[in-house]
């Protein structure tokens, strides 16, 4: 094979298009401001508008989010301890009452999406105590911090883009408050999922996951589109248990939701 002279190699290399380099993650917050500018350019290329970009540039590195991400102890508990710590008996008791008071609403969701009331109510109770506490952290800052952080950057990046597009559309604002990992609303949707599966459950023309009807309809829509089979069982080993895994990857969480839902529906 004939070798090219160094000058020819240099000319060829110069002529090749440069590969776009993704914004680099970091395990510390030291370069966060520089990363924001890199990420903003990528977000703009993916269709994020001015409001979304402005929201990203206004974020600050969230040490509270990183602390929470490194300290998720409850998912390592036994099932019995998890149920106790997360207040399963209270969720079931209140859940039964909520179902009885709003029977038509839950029936309409099951008719539309095939997801029974118990599942939606168990998730609602588990995530926010039925809307009692929906978080204390800026959503965009939390998601941006987790995208910047190297531990799960690839997982959170689509959720950051989703959050910025939600800002563009007025679904959330740059100041919206959610959970430590950027989850938002009554059932704690990550922004990318909220953007993709959001449903106007109360018919007011707005998708607002801080509205209970919108949040529960969106939850039902998410589960159905992830493969929920209407009329099929959802306990471990039954067809719909696998769909609960789409909601949360922790086995003990999946088991708890299935158990509480059956008690609420029972």
From TrEMBL:
Residues 1-22 form the signal peptide. Keywords: Signal. CDD domains: Slt35-like. Residues 32-235 form the Transglycosylase SLT domain. InterPro entries: Lysozyme-like_dom_sf, MltB-like, SLT_2. SUPFAM superfamilies: Lysozyme-like (SSF53955). This is Murein transglycosylase.
